[in-house]
Amino acid sequence: GYILFIIKFENLQELKRLSLGVIAICSTMAMIDSVLRYWPLHTTGRSVNFIMLINWTVMILYNYFNAMFVGPGFVPLGWKLEISQDIMYLQYCKVCQAYKAPGSHHCRNNCCGYQNHASFTLFLLLAPLHCIHAAFIFVMTMYTQLYNRLSFRWNTVKTDMSTARRDPLPIVPLGLAAFAATLFALGLALGTTIAVGMLFVMQMKIILRNKTSTESWTEEKMKSVFPYDTGSRWRNFKQVFTWSGVPEGDGLEWPVRDGCHQYSLTTEQLKQKAGKRVRSVLYKVTEDYSGACCPLNKGIKTFFTSPCTEEPRIQLQKGEFVLATRGLQYWLYGDKILDDSFIEGVSRIRGLFPRKCVEKCPCDAETHQAPEGKQKNT
After folding, report:
1. Helical (H) or strand (E) element with 292
2. How are the domains described in the entry (predicted)?
């Protein structure tokens, strides 16, 4: 089936595994430092602090597993249009041998979509908040422990900070190993706050504009308004976040702006794909390429300009052909041509590859004809 409304900047599964591992370390260290060193459970305020740490962890785990196991949702098996003539507005999927519902995509991994978008976004919000709380515990733990232990000398004046001990004393003093572990956890907490916080900001922009990152690529080339943006950020927000926890609609039909219809976006996608095929360029591989993300043997500029995207790299061998549909100064994106797949149009091995390892084929190539209308290099 098709996954509904993919947010395509992520390998969501790897992202959440990495974040969950960091959060587990930060949670464990924060609870240890809080109870044993910085804020032992002697007062109500310190108990509330400990309960908050547990609360962050529970909410993060809930949204993590909800986003992971609920999934984005799927188009029902055997889905068909109520009006058969509307098939002309839809894209055809050769993998499923069926027409694609508007807004649906295939994904290689567990992704973010219609059913788990809210849970994924809450996960991205709660993780930095928890790490900020944990970072505060780490900083205060190291500060208070060092404050009680160290003596500082300035010229002939010596101030013994150990005389200003704080009550209550820590249950377990901060040793060298514990200090190193706390410092390491602090680095993880700050890094996670920045990295995951940036992803949260990106998700909120997507939600408030009511479009996926895949649809954003289409919208950049559209001359008309984006049909699913209701024009109100609050209405867009409410389509994802509801009091019941169930997103609005069924994932197949969505409210559209005045002057648009359910197939406005798919019509534009078909038009852009047709133009892409016309502009595509056939290349012949002149150097082997291993599929490395940042290849060292393809030049310094190719190495440092590797696209920061999850789009796959494809392995190439000398003598193969690729059909490039778009590109950058030192990188191209296209389909590898295998056997007769160029003629049949069934090649689906797609990805990025360095421009340096290919050369443009002449239009009168005997084995493969260049795409009609090819005017310029991609």
Report:
1. none
2. The DHHC domain is required for palmitoyltransferase activity.
The angle at the Cα of 81, spanning 76 to 83, to the nearest 5 degrees, equals 165
Q: Name the 3-class secondary structure at 92.
A: strand
The residue ranges of every structural domain in the chain are: 3-220, 280-360
How big is the chain by its Cα radius of gyration, in Å? 27
Q: pTM, whole model, 2 decimals? A: 0.69
Maximum C-alpha span of the chain: 92
Q: Which residue, 296, 266, 251, 308, is CA-closest to 100?
A: 266
Among the listed residues 316, 368, 311, the one whose alpha carbon sits nearest the alpha carbon of residue 11: 311
| pLDDT tens digits for range 99-154 | 888 877 777 666 778 888 899 999 999 999 999 998 888 888 887 777 665 544 44
**Fold of the domain built from segment(s) 280-360:** SH3 type barrels. (2.30.30)
**DSSP H or E run through 105:** strand 104-105
In one-letter notation, the amino acid at residue 183 is L
What is the per-residue pLDDT across 247-258, written as a single tens digit (0 to 9) for each?
A: 887 778 888 888
Query: In 34-150, where does DSSP find H-type helix?
Result: 44-70, 117-149
Task: Find out whether 105 and 8 touch, Cβ atoms under 8 Å.
Answer: yes
How would residue 174 be classed by pLDDT, with cut points 50, 70 and 90?
A: low
